DNA-binding transcriptional regulator NtrC (Gluconacetobacter entanii), 483 residues
Amino acid sequence: MSLPTILVADDDRSIRTVLSQALGRAGYQVRATAHASTLWQWVEEGEGDLVITDVVMPDLNGLDLIPRIRRVRPDLRVVVMSAQSTLTTAVQATQRGAFEYLPKPFDLKEVLAVVARALATPATVVPAPAVAQPEEQMPLIGRSVVMQDIYRIIARLTTSDLTVMISGESGTGKELVARALHEYGRRRTGPFVAINMAAVPRDMIESELFGHERGAFAGATCRVAGRFEQAAGGTLFLDEIGDMPPEAQTRLLRVLQDGEFTTVGGVQPVQANVRIIAATHRDLRQAIRAGTFREDLYYRLNVVPMRLPPLRERVEDIPLLARHFLNACHEDGTPAKILEDAAIAPLQAYRWPGNVRELENLMRRLNALYPQETLGADLIEHELAEAQAMSTPAAEGAVRDNETLSDAVGRHIRHFLETGQDGMPLHDIYDKVIAEVERPLISMTLSATRGNQIKAAAMLGLNRNTLRKKIRDLDIPVVRGGG
């Protein structure tokens, strides 16, 4: 039995050498060339069991070669490599029939794993899809490893209507990913309709989603189509799905199960001809445990989970993103600005709590407020220091001017109620909030008395046994220091 032969096409001699050596050590025969025309000649002659090709070569684009290979050798697997590493490249490679897409620089272990999987997977002869190739509009920016994984998932989903759940912190670009899934998918000619659950009053969500009939409620003077009808034939993006109230969750689950819905006040079922993409910044598993999100709905929505990384996990993308946003400002008609190379280091050292959205806002602010053409490190450091000062107290234990303890507690409770912090059910928070106040109060009093519980009980005005019980119930560590 002859060894499998791998055909390698890349105009970079070092890449040909590295791949030839690695594949040879793994037990494969290798034929390598710098030209797509030579690769095509080998394919026509029946050579090879697998193709690994670069995209940009002197005589032909590797992506254009894939449909030709599929026509003459439909069982021959093609693996595409590219240094362009953009979403569009990944999508085009997948849509034209590539078995896998690998961004450069690649990991040799991953290459060998892909080769083994491609040779072991039975070939299925499927005609190449006749799809219009989208222009290179860079809907998502970044060439980091984590973004390449996102690109590959999007590329693989272009031929399916599977429901997707996008999770990630605020500002990571969840709606951009949802739009990319739509614009590169089978429903691209249909509408993309988005609704933010956190922005719709609870008593209006069902009407917003499913529409209502005339007379369904006070003020309903005519029939209004909901977002499901508006998105017919396209994609419905349910942003901040974790903020959906329980009654609307029940109706959404029924729609996902039955494929149809009725308007508020209506009796005639309407077909739900939409692809669902949901997004959340919350931990929905924690919300399920807290009783604020239905577990059965979670599994209906979480068919394909996608996690968007925060910007601090992809700092290598910051230079590309920052310069992209400055270029966007210039395209809007403002003078061109250049980011000094030295300015990259402070940008990459910052934590970016607002993620990509915060970086975009910074670039737009710098473009508008500073007249100089070159933006240097000193300017960046000054702006980031200002942002840090606005979001962080000046010192540990700092107290706002004229703020009472009641004001501080009220401020935190207001934030808690507005955000539904940590997925706690908002109908059962009294004991939890009281515990959050008691824990630091007792802990700091014990610290002030150096662990002396008799003195702490006297300071707090509590019975000593009561204090001991609270220490035990609240799991407060006690360090005895005498006194």
